[in-house]
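Hi C.,

You asked whether I'd gotten around to modeling the 75-residue construct. I have! Everything is below, sequence then structure, no commentary in between.
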Amino acid sequence: MSFVYPHLNVIALLLAALAQFVIGFLWYSQMTPIGRAWLAEMDFGDRAEQRPGAEMLVFPLGSIVAAWAVSMVIA
């Protein structure tokens, strides 16, 4: 069985997706000063107290797809 995209490094793709996920967590989380400032500026109010649902399942998959797309453009 051969890999369809042999020029892509799967580990680098997963690390890029993980980095995007961590940066997004730091930016949007109300547990960090940056996240609290962002929430205050965006005036989310009561919606900030809600727990994320499907977004937390979709975001890592979107991060992997975005990292793959960027690597395809660069390669």
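If it helps when you're writing up: The mean pLDDT is 79.

Thanks,
B.
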